[in-house]
Structure formats: C-alpha cells, structure tokens
Amino acid sequence: MQISKSFLGMAALIAMVGQSAIAQNVSNNRVAAKTDWSVFVEENPKECWGVSVPTETVNTRDGRVVAANRGEILLMVFFRPSAEASGQVAFTGGYPFREGSQVSVEIGGSEFSLFTDGDWAWPASAADDAKLVAAMKRGSDAVVTGLSSRGTTTKDTFSLLGFTAAVEDAETRCAS
C-alpha cells in the first residue's frame, strides 16, 4: 500500500504539533472530534482520515519497563478517492520498526498483523483493512505492539470510543 506525500506531510504536521494540539483543534484541517478520535481532511488531493493517539504506552526491553524516546504515536484510518483507497489502516509508533518485523493489533481477543516499512505499519491487503476496521468498530480498545530497530518492544493502547463516528465521518467527507 502507498501513502501519498500530502498524507505523510499532514501526519508529520500532526506529529510536530503534538498530542495536545490534536485535542485543542490547533491544526487547520481538523474538521471534527468524535470522543477519542479526530477527523482531518486534506483537499488537494482529497484525503480524509480519522486518527487517535494512545491512552497508554508501555515500553519494555528484556522484560523490564524502560524509557524510550519516541515521536508521535498515531493510529489512523484514511480514505483517498483518487487512489481508490477506502478504509486503509495505518500506524506509526514514533520510531523505525525493526526490519522484517510485524506489528500486532489486538482487539477483543482477535489479533491482526501489520507489515512494517520504516516508521509505518499497514495491513497487507484491502481485505485485511476491512477486517481490522470491522473489529475496531466492535471493540472498546486496540492494543498495538511493535518492535523498534533498537530492540524495544512497545505496547500502545488506543481507545476506540468515537472510532465508528470518526471513520464514517471521514468516509462521508471523501465521498462528496
């Protein structure tokens, strides 16, 4: 799956302005807040996405909790009509993933795998995206576990309160 440069640029902007900026509506392309999720729209090319930051983060190495220097941690679902992308899931853990590693997402006892490339992770196919989005709509939280290039295991918990409303809003905004 490919993520466009403008989408990555907006994700980088979100990362730079930080978690509190998302909550305080600082970004000029945030169009809605749905409990723990926000909706963003980029016009050229048209892209819409729902995004959230974790409610809890735990970093471990060799079974011990450690401090880790991480950038912005984001879980998102986006729509890009020009690329016929609908409901694509993406995760960035705020660090480069270990080469060849996978990220796991656990929701309500079901586990999903994401492949990694640099700082980003995605499901392998549109069908996998659809299964993950369906689970996110039913779940109350998502636990995302990854492995950094330095060997730190990260476990980020995302609330799914407002997820369905945010994703449906983003999808509707990109349909028009």
Features:
176 residues; alpha+beta; Immunoglobulin-like; 12-stranded antiparallel β-sheet; 4 helices; 12 strands; 25% helix; 40% strand; globular; disordered N terminus
Structural notes for this entry:
- The protein has 176 residues and is an alpha+beta fold.
- The chain has a single domain, classed as Invasion associated locus B (IalB) protein (Immunoglobulin-like, Sandwich), CATH 2.60.40.1880.
- Helix content is 25%, strand content 40%.
- It has helices at residues 5-17, 19-23, 126-138, 163-175; strands at 30-34, 37-42, 47-52, 56-61, 64-65, 74-80, 85-92, 102-107, 110-117, 120-122, 141-147, 153-159.
- A 12-stranded antiparallel sheet has the order 1-2-3-6-7-10-9-8-11-12-4-5, with helices on both faces.
- The longest helix is centred in the first third of the chain and has 13 residues, at 5-17.
- The relative contact order is 0.21.
**What name goes with the CATH superfamily?**
Invasion associated locus B (IalB) protein
The biggest beta sheet, please? Answer: 12 strands, antiparallel
Rg, Cα atoms, Å = 15 Å
Secondary-structure arrangement, i.e. CATH architecture: Sandwich
Low-confidence stretches: 1-27
What is the class in the CATH system?
A: Mainly Beta
Structural category is: alpha+beta
Strand order of the largest sheet: 1-2-3-6-7-10-9-8-11-12-4-5
Share of residues in strands? 35-45%
Question: H/E series, N to C?
Answer: HHEEEEEEEEEEHEEH
How many angstroms separate the termini? Answer: 23 Å
Report the total helices: 4
Q: What is the CATH fold-level name?
A: Immunoglobulin-like
Q: How confident is the prediction overall: mean pLDDT?
A: 86
The shape, in one word, is globular
The total tally of domains equals 1
Number of E strands:
12
